[in-house]
Amino acid sequence: MKHLKAINSKASRLEAEAESQKHDVFALQSGRDATKQPHIPVGCSLAFFPGWEVDSAGGTAGLCQPAERDLYDCYADCFWPAQVPDHLNRYPDWSKKCAAATQDWRNLDVVFP
Amino acid sequence: MKTIASSIVFALFAVHSQAAIYLATYQGELLTIDDATYSIVKKTKLRTGIAREMILMPDKKHVLLMTNQYSGIEVVDLEKGEVVDSWQVDTPSTRLRPTSMAIDPTGRYVYTMTATYTKKVDRWDIGEDKLAVIDLTSHKVVREELFPKDKKPDSFGMSFRVSPDGKSLYLFGSSVLIFDTATLKFSKEINLEKPIYPGMSRVNFIPEIDPHDSPDSVTALFQTEDPYVHKRIFGLAKFDLNTRTFDFTPIGTTVPGKNEEGGMSNVRLSADRKSGYAVASFGEHGDKTCQFWSFDIPQKALKSRQDFTCNSRFYFSSSHDGKDLLIFGAGFEIGVYDAATLKLKKTVNLGYDVTMAGMIVLPPQANQVAAR
């Protein structure tokens, strides 16, 4: 319910500005125009593809064995999200001590945002 | 002293004149691997990050790489083993993220697919897909054109190739798209059936990886379907990059004797182009099995098959002489298989996880001996 009403010109301008920004914010699952580009907030990810954690069938049989073989390919090259630091933007040296994930995973750093 | 100096020069030369394999690692390095012993002979540290694309330049003395972090582009001199040029395409508020690339025959321009990601106050705006031309001399995007909306590129990228005359750009994906290099306008489409194995189809159309394929054509395995019974058939095919003609010879039904899931890798040719090799996969996830297939190219016939234990995800290549078949990717190892028997010879531990940039195999550089 709208409780505020603009009664002077400045308030009207603010109201018009807020109204014009409305369509920039919408629920991602809403029935919006499919031709519009996805609105991806900074720091968020839309991709929920199975990948490093589970395969396309929801299990682990399709993952590389061991799963560490897929660690870098999945999140660095394929841009799939995983519970690892952002190697591309904020933590480029996160895995510099771990040349081969299967062999050196104990050397992976823990980061604290 | 003169003898020692000559020996040193000869030894250094010997390293460079040997056949070599190049792989990019997640440590941001380009590995130079001796093709005969599979030992790492050099590691070249890249300046802009981890390579996700790499391609041998037309002079066969340089490698062009695209890196992940800030859309970096680097040129490595293979003889010197060092980066001779590098720059970043991204700005603090934009990401270009070029994917797939091909170099024109002059070696000056690279054709790639881009989408500009613009950072706003609270979100990223994703631009439309574009074909772009980057001038390797000026380091700038000199031409770009919107990708046709009704020809959306494959989600995992398409393989690019420039015609020998430099006038046409071919994009290999679910079909062959042809663009005019001068205008980047779409000119023609050739429909092809592609293997259904997810993520493998793009490997079929990367001719630069195979040093034995003709520079004027692409040899690959294709699938097709007859229009009446809809029975799937696969075969060997050759696409002529000059005439744009397609020569298809059927060999058999799709993944014969197995279920519908599975597919074929790219085909690798022997040095004399009389034999070809590919990997066939059957099933998926826990039921997945793999086989090497060898082909008689002149007869267009399947010669033999051999089962082997394969990872869920891998790449397939071969040594410069075609005597070894190589399975690599998704990890730090190279499986070396004998091309004659299709059996495992050894497993090489590189100690570095390799990226999805693929493998470059370079035959011995005989002209270096003559120059010295």
Describe the structure.
Chain A has three helices and one strand. Chain A is mostly helical and 113 residues long. Chain A is elongated. Chain A starts with 8 loop residues before the first helix and ends in a 9-residue tail after the last helix. Chain B is mainly beta and 372 residues long. Chain B has a domain at 193-310. Chain B has two helices and 31 strands. The radius of gyration of chain B is 21 Å and the shape is globular. Chain A binds chain B through residues 37-42, 55-57, 59, 61-65, 69-73, 76-78, 87-89, 92, 95-96, 99-103, and chain B through 25-27, 49-50, 52, 68-69, 119-120, 122-126, 284-286, 288, 311-313, 329-332, 350-353, 355-356. Strand 1 (40-41) of chain A pairs antiparallel with strand 12 of chain B, so a sheet runs across the interface.
Helices and strands in order, then pairings?
The complex is a heterodimer of chains A (113) and B (372).
Chain A: H1 9-21, E1 40-41, H2 71-77, H3 101-104
Chain B: H1 2-17, E1 20-25, E2 29-34, E3 40-45, E4 51-56, E5 62-67, E6 72-77, E7 82-88, E8 94-95, E9 99-103, E10 109-114, E11 117-119, E12 123-126, E13 130-135, E14 140-146, E15 159-162, E16 168-172, E17 175-180, E18 186-191, E19 217-225, E20 232-240, E21 246-253, E22 262-264, E23 268-269, E24 275-282, E25 289-296, E26 301-308, E27 315-318, E28 324-328, E29 333-338, E30 344-349, E31 354-362, H2 366-371
Antiparallel strand pairs in B: 1-2, 1-31, 2-3, 4-5, 5-6, 6-7, 8-11, 9-10, 10-13, 11-12, 13-14, 15-16, 16-17, 17-18, 19-20, 20-21, 22-24, 23-24, 24-25, 25-26, 27-28, 28-29, 29-30
